[in-house]
Amino acid sequence: MSNSELLTVEPLDLQFPFELRKQISCSLYLTNKTDNHVAFKVKTTNPKKYCVRPNTGVVLPRSTCEVLVTMQAQKEAPSDMQCKDKFLLQGVTASPGITAKDVTPEMFSKEAGYLVEETKLRVTYVAPPQPPSPVHEGSEEGSSPRASVSDNGQTSEFSFQRFSADKVEPQENTSEARALITKLTEEKQSAIQLNNKLQRELDQLRRDGKKSQSGIPLMYVLLVGLIGLILGYIMKST
């Protein structure tokens, strides 16, 4: 805050949260401590970089006026994050009933005999505000599974044990599944071998059956022929 007789300026240090490719604004508050109208004008050493609204105006007696200073979007950041830009606020007592349109550059000319009050302002770059950290999903209270502290100062291992059990259970299920798969595979191989054995025995029985079916008629024919020869011999001999 300045100790000027006409206008109290706050702040004296313009702080801009510097971010690349983004316009940043900072407010100045001018307070008229007198019973007179006070005209003001804002100057800067780098007019292309900043936009001041309003850059000229009138502060009514015992009132406050806000001036918005906007820094244009910057493509590069200074290596040391230091800014050498300066602002100069000029104030002068004005006639009653004056408006912002009536303020002229000649009113702030010391050569013309006007009593001009000046306040110098600095520019400072500050770090931009950090976004809030995201809340991780955890227990019902929103905390992660970790050991808690009881009222007597001792650490409770309930949460940790529960967390460890949850981690071990999937491994046990995996071991049981692997054992079941191995057992089913062995049973499948045994069933395949038994099926092949039964198939071979069935084929052998079929082949034996065909041989026996083809052998019965041949013996019958031989037996009938033999009986025929015996009967023929008997008949001849008689």
Structural descriptors:
238 residues, alpha+beta, four-stranded antiparallel beta sheet
Q: Gist?
A:
By secondary structure, this protein is an alpha+beta fold. The chain has 1 helix and 11 strands; from the N terminus they run βββββββββββα.
Strand and helix map with partners:
Layout: E1 7-10, E2 13-17, E3 24-32, E4 37-44, E5 50-53, E6 56-59, E7 64-71, E8 86-94, E9 117-126, E10 148-149, E11 155-156, H1 158-237
Parallel strand pairs: 2-9
Antiparallel strand pairs: 1-3, 3-7, 4-6, 4-8, 5-7, 8-9, 10-11
Describe this structure in words.
With 238 residues, the protein is of the alpha+beta class. It has one helix at residues 158-237; strands at residues 7-10, 13-17, 24-32, 37-44, 50-53, 56-59, 64-71, 86-94, 117-126, 148-149, 155-156. The strands form 3 sheets. A 5-stranded mixed β-sheet has the order 2-9-8-4-6, with no helix packed on it. A hairpin with a 5-residue loop joins strand 10 and strand 11. The N and C termini lie far apart (166 Å).
Ranges where pLDDT stays below 50 over 5 or more residues in a row are 147-151, 155-161
Kindly state the mean pLDDT as a whole number? 80
CA-atom Rg in angstroms: 54 Å
Structure annotation, total helices? 1
Broad structural category = alpha+beta
